[in-house]
Fold:
Amino acid sequence: MSKTTERAVVDVFFALGDGTRLAVVGRLGAGVALSATAISDGAHVTRQAIAKHLRVLEDAGLVTHEKRGREVLYALEARRLEEARVFLDGISAGWDRAIDRL
Amino acid sequence: MSKTTERAVVDVFFALGDGTRLAVVGRLGAGVALSATAISDGAHVTRQAIAKHLRVLEDAGLVTHEKRGREVLYALEARRLEEARVFLDGISAGWDRAIDRL
DNA sequence: GCACTCTGCAACCATATGGTTGCACATGAG
DNA sequence: CTCATGTGCAACCATATGGTTGCAGAGTGC
Structure:
């Protein structure tokens, strides 16, 4: 379990460790599901770049998608954020405990 | 402020988004300051690889170093972890609030 | 049906990343 | 002094990463 969980946490941190992706998470953090096109409006990168980032975020479990007609809406998955938060919380209290808490 | 802080948070997440680095943080999380050589003992990578990772961690503010005779000891900086934790904590409650909390 | 919009895929590119080896330079131990 | 240890720097390498452009396909609106 610990190995699997640890990898998941790494993926989450990796996903958050990019400015563009963190900005996407921020926009989705408002609570409204958005399409890749909607997110790329106002962003300084292409829609395809945003799409790639959304894939990374989804692979990390931070985001889920839902087909809504012809567009695909992405929403934030708060659970994973919480997991990462708890993980960080535990590190200062000892590594093993950090993993056990999950 | 928000821009600067946001970048710092990205750096922290980026630093944690690598398995080797997360393992290093884990070992330092025990509370004992260790040298790069000590950390690389038992790790599956070279001392120089660990040294590079320690530099990344230090640039992110997650680690501090102290010259101790001929060796250099690295210790975990819990404050940055806490910052990242608080940041994550705030995202689900809204992006702006997340930045303000720092 | 037809045009428009949003999506998905593929090719491609420059640079960053993680890792290695090799060697020179301090510093502590004998 | 001499030798072993720990560090730092540089070159180098394969692959991952972040980004682009171009185009084909699926739904929607009229």
